[in-house]
Amino acid sequence: MRAFTCVKAYMDGCAIPYRTDATGRDSTTFKVGGPLALLAEPSDAASAEKLISYITEKEIPYYIIGNGSNLLIPDEGVDKLFIRFAGELADFRIEGNELICGAGASMASAAKRSVAEGLMGLEWAAGIPGTVGGAVAMNAGAYGGEIKQVLKEVTVIEGGKLKTVKAEDSAMGYRRSAYSFPGMTVLEAVFSLRPDDGGAASRMEDYSRRRREKQPLSYPSAGSTFKRPEGHFAGALIEKAGLKGFSVGGAQVSEKHAGFVINTGNATASDVMEVIRSVRQAVFESEGVMLEPEVKIL
Ligand SMILES: Cc1cc2nc3c(=O)[nH]c(=O)nc-3n(C[C@H](O)[C@H](O)[C@H](O)COP(=O)(O)OP(=O)(O)OC[C@H]3O[C@@H](n4cnc5c(N)ncnc54)[C@H](O)[C@@H]3O)c2cc1C
């Protein structure tokens, strides 16, 4: 692993907090994976902009991490500077019908607050265990809703500089956006919501109940491991291929929902990778469909 000495000195000079002991196990919801070489936690836009412009100029490899709820970090770790937003960049507020969120804010907490304050549009997002930045980058969605439907604009850092981009210029597609690629960083997102029609709280409760009933929420995972292939459901294909419960080491195709690979307690990232590889091969051989991972594999 690189020592990142110059970045540490730079961050010491700007009082940007960082950690040298972070791992995939403690920074992702899969709870697998080795060391992250360095994890910076800027807490305001000025520090984030300064840091990203410094590392862009120095060509230092970096990766933006949210809550790690869609990430697989390899067992040998990743030799990059990780950046996770904290402090005021993890806060949110409501102004009229708008929800304004720092990229590090919890998507679920912001969605729940918007419903509590009489707004609708994000009821489906109350069960997404990621940050707002991760939800925008992935164009997260569930139960017919997706970020694209409510996003107004995004403040981003591109090429080390801050700018505001309208939602329609953000290339939002199925589980992707202009921000799901290296070099683009979401700092803030503004959502345009509507006054509650009286049913937002019960819709939110219904979606949560459906998640609890159908998803293996008591095990570490990254949610749906594969993208939905056109005309199919990944879980149904995996089940049809006879892989429900298939396991390698501590990684298993969930018995409750075959679309989820779970960590039953002592999985390594290699176990998870091996389950993903085997599932793709078996589903391709028996069903003729090549599944694409939704989880970002570093
Ligand atoms: C139990 C469970 C249920 C889930 N259910 C759903 C669901 O219903 N629908 C759904 O869509 N997803 C779901 N997910 C997956 C995941 O929660 C979402 O994709 C979430 O939006 C990822 O956010 P994150 O902050 O954890 O991002 P991370 O996993 O940390 O990162 C994911 C990607 O986003 C990028 N990223 C993160 N922050 C930023 C930023 N500020 N700027 C630019 N890029 C950034 C990362 O670089 C990476 O490429 C589920 C996951 C779990 C564990």
Notes on the protein architecture:
By secondary structure, the protein is α+β, with helices and mostly antiparallel strands. It has eight helices and 19 strands. The chain folds into three domains: 5-87, Uridine Diphospho-n-acetylenolpyruvylglucosamine Reductase, domain 2 (2-Layer Sandwich); 91-195, Uridine Diphospho-n-acetylenolpyruvylglucosamine Reductase, domain 3; 216-297, Uridine Diphospho-n-acetylenolpyruvylglucosamine Reductase, domain 1 (Alpha-Beta Complex). The protein has a five-stranded antiparallel sheet with strand order 6-7-13-11-12. A four-stranded mixed sheet has the order 1-2-5-3, with no helix packed on it. A four-stranded antiparallel sheet has the order 15-18-17-16, covered by helices on one side. Helix 1 packs antiparallel against helix 3 (45-57). The longest helix has 19 residues, at 269-287. Residues 29, 63-71, 103, 128-131, 133-135, 137-138, 140-142, 179-180, 185-186, 215, 217, 221-223, 296 line the site of flavin-adenine dinucleotide (FAD).
